[in-house]
């Protein structure tokens, strides 16, 4: 655990000193801030609420859910270049590796959320910023990361190369599109609402809206309720499923790793570059 914590902190520090990684930390939050800027004065129908104010908490929830994509990208890249094989050859190496990834991905995720949230609160008005709001944001964020990071570990174990891992972006974008992130879900057809409620992205967005929006904004939600109990239930179910399945999948993936498989993937990558 000490080695994993140290590894995670080193990787997190490197991500803010490496120019390429630093750009990735700022790129997505800045793009979302630009979107909020253009939405800051647009009203949502006759509800009296500004679309930008409704969207900011949802975007924060969406960014929290994107931690599963980051986790899968890191795992796939480390599998391709042999990092996982070296971890496997070290006593308790896989456990330390996984702890390190959780630390680095979670730390990077929190930094990205602050890059988005702090300027966003100056761009849009009407957010709730009391003590209760920050407490709700904290428990939703922690539960959301526990629910989504194991999913990312599972997905990272499925794909064998960073090139094939890019395919995960398509279903994630689809989930975002129907999860009420950029437009209230109650304006969508009922069948899309049911699909959205099966995903952790919707519940993370709902939880963040319950934390940062005034109580009167609940009228735009399904059933005119923030549904905290359902949020805990669904995110908790995803967390339990991920924590049960991820260790099994990671162990099976680690057993299949060998020097020859790493060399084969490296040769294929060099052929693509050539």
Instruction: Please count the helical segments.
Output: 13
The parts where pLDDT drops under 50 for at least 5 residues are none
Tell me the radius of gyration. 20 Å
The residue-averaged pLDDT reads: 85
User: What's the structural domain tally?
Assistant: 1
Mind summarizing the main beta sheet?
none
Shape estimate? elongated
- Distance from first to last alpha carbon: 41 Å
Instruction: Name the helicity range.
Output: over 70%
Q: Give the strand tally.
A: 0
| Structural class computed from helices and strand pairing | mainly alpha
% residues in beta strands? under 5%
Order of helices and strands: HHHHHHHHHHHHH
3D architecture notes:
With 274 residues, the protein is an all-alpha fold. The chain has one domain. Helices cover 75% and strands 0% of the residues. The protein contains 13 helices and no strands. Helix 2 packs antiparallel against helix 3 and helix 3 runs antiparallel to helix 6. The longest helix has 31 residues. It is elongated.
């Amino acid at each position: 655990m000490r080695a994993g914590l140290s590894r995670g902190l080193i990787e997190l520090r490197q991500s803010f000193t490496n120019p390429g990684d630093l750009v990735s930390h700022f790129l997505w939050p800045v793009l979302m801030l630009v979107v909020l800027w253009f939405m800051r004065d647009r009203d949502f129908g006759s509800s009296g609420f500004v679309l930008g104010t409704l969207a900011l908490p949802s975007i924060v929830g969406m960014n929290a859910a994107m931690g599963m994509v980051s986790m899968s990208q890191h795992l796939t890249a480390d599998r391709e270049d042999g990092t996982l094989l070296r971890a496997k050859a070290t006593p308790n190496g896989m456990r330390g590796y996984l702890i390190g990834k959780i630390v680095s991905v979670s730390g990077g995720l929190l930094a990205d959320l602050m890059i988005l949230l702090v300027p966003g609160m100056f761009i849009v008005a009407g957010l709730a910023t009391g003590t209760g709001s920050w407490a709700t944001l904290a428990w939703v964020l922690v539960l959301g990361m526990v629910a989504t990071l194991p999913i990312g570990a599972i997905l990272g174990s499925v794909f064998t190369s960073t090139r094939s891992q890019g395919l995960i972006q398509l279903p994630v974008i689809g989930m975002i599109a129907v999860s009420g992130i950029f437009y209230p879900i109650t304006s969508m057809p009922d069948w899309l609402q049911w699909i959205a409620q099966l995903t952790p992205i919707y519940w993370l967005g709902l939880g963040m809206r319950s934390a940062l929006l005034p109580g009167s904004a609940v009228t735009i939600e399904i059933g005119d309720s923030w549904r905290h109990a359902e949020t805990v239930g669904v995110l908790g179910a995803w967390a339990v499923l991920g924590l049960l399945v991820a260790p099994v999948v990671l162990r099976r993936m680690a057993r299949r790793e060998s020097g020859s498989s790493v060399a084969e993937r490296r040769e294929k990558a060099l052929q693509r570059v050539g």
